[in-house]
Amino acid sequence: MKLHRDEITVDESLVVSLLERQRPEWARLPLAPAGAGTDNVMYRLGDELVVRLPRTAAVNDALRKERYWLPRLAPLLPHAVPEPVHSGAPTRAYPLGWSVYRWIDGEEPGPGTVRDWEAFGADLAEFVRELHGTALMGATPLDGLSWYRGGPLGACDSWVGDAFDACRALAHAATDAEAVRAGDADEGATLDLDALDLDALERLWRKALRLPGPTGPPGWLHGDLRPSNLLVREGALHAVIDFGALSIGFPDAEHAPLWDLPRAARESYRTALGVDEAAWERARAWAIAVGVSGYSHYRDSWPAFAAACRARLAAVLTDTAG
């Protein structure tokens, strides 16, 4: 499944060829797909390893960042994080760097894996608190550690507005298609994008833009704490993975993926961290921004991801409805 125009095709034969050249002792281990994100493709290697390969050159530096910083951060964090064990060199067949990590057993959080959502939210808050409070160890945003989600909301207004326009266009296109099938749609009927009130979401976004910005010194951010980057074992949070968005900035956007989790986890997390109302509204705005852009961008290329974005937006609306 290709998600980007400039994406490099990765399959099992390519991974085997890379291993044969650079780690021949691993080349005959069992190899199986282990999931993929918007930036990387992964293969489980034997019982103890996982290979991670960027989809495009644009994210090539993310793995280098992980290999340098994760060994330094891991001892300071309360839950497991990926352990790099090999830095793969580019080849003619695959012109990007790649990495091998220790495999971490666990499952994505969900109704069948999490025992207590309040405890899960508190555990995630503990991880975030420790990460955000960790000394920078001399790092600065200029060290490849700057990302838009650690900055101000206002800098994103243009593309968020475009994403709202794209969602509305998709809604109208779907309405027209439904009208053709039904043959009797009322004039002016609109599709609510699966019961989502886009106007209400945009009002929440605009409201947050008028708030004062975050204050205090910037700190470490994971950058993408959505459920697929969290691992559960024995009903509780066990590990946090995929630090490709590791950055230094303000924490508001770090809280946005809490709208991907049940309300009990979200409320427990907020209470444990003591997030004030303004910061929570900015976090909610980040959830909206990523939700509308993700839905409009990946609706056709990755429907499952678009569905997750749509569910996030629905959770925002449910929260505001009381």
UniProtKB/TrEMBL annotation:
This is Aminoglycoside phosphotransferase family protein. It comes from the Bacteria. InterPro entries: AGP_Transferase (IPR051678), Aminoglycoside_PTrfase (IPR002575), Kinase-like_dom_sf (IPR011009). Pfam families: APH (PF01636). It comes from Streptomyces sanyensis. Residues 32-286 form the Aminoglycoside phosphotransferase domain.
